[in-house]
Amino acid sequence: MISLRFNKLFRNRCSLYKKKLIRHSSTEKQTKIKVNNIEINYLKVGNGPQTLLLLPGTLGSIFTDFKPQIDTLNREKYTIVAWDPPGYGFSRPPDRNFPPEYFYNDADYAISLMKSLQIDKYSLLGWSDGGITALIMASKAVDRVEKLIVWGSNAYVTEKDVELYEKIRDIENWSPRMRQQFIELYGKTYFSDTWNAWVDYFQIVLKENGGDICREALSKINAPTLILHGAQDPLVPMEHPVYLHKKIKYGSLKIYPEGKHNIHLRYAELFNSEVDDFLAKD
């Protein structure tokens, strides 16, 4: 049952990649910049006064994860920056690995990316793992992060959470359509190995760190924060957005009753409207 629900919730995201490459190959130019010791792939579009950094989820990349946002957010209101984290998308080499400080490393790279682009103030939109990275960024770059929007994210994992991940460890149990999109982007071996390493990481976090990912970061976040969540999310149970809402001092919570993990894709128009409204508030 979990595998079937997981396949369905990611189907939209995975089917976007090839279409986006074709549609934007001549109009949306991705480029690379050296950040510390890694060539980071990123996209920068728009010329609006508010800068947004979009942070993708596990194995995600610029166009697999944020097509509706890149397409339709107002580029006169926003300057949009989207990146491939180290080891994902086209920010390779190096291969992705998952040391204990993995999320904190990504946060440091993302902060350094914005410094390299000479962008002093920005807001963050983070999905899933990207939301965890965004939470940490907001706790570290307090003077730079203006607003924070996260969805499908968590600050810790439970035994139940890790059991959910284990049920979808074997990519052969994924739908062929979903699996193929990642294989085309990464190759089967890299895709499978990286996904398995991701599941292993959370097993280690549960056993060696009591499940804690970034609990201590939450009290340090001063940016107004919008927590969005699909009530039917099969990967991130409702206790997680409730916990974030409780621990983040300027947090607000919005639930999509029928939403799953990919609410920004499934309900793109409503989601983008929520983003607009939140960013417009004083």
From TrEMBL:
Gene3D superfamilies reported in the protein's UniProt record: alpha/beta hydrolase (3.40.50.1820)
SUPFAM superfamilies named among the record's database cross-references: alpha/beta-Hydrolases (SSF53474)
Hydrolase among keywords: yes
InterPro entries cross-referenced by the UniProt entry: AB_hydrolase_1, AB_hydrolase_fold, Hydrolase_4
Domain Serine aminopeptidase S33, residue spans: 211-264
Gene Ontology MF, one: serine hydrolase activity
Statement: the UniProt record of this protein carries the keyword Methyltransferase: no
Keyword terms of this UniProt record: Hydrolase
Domain AB hydrolase-1: 51-183
The protein, known as: Valacyclovir hydrolase-like isoform X2
Source organism of the structure: Aphis craccivora
Lineage start: Eukaryota, Metazoa, Ecdysozoa, Arthropoda, Hexapoda
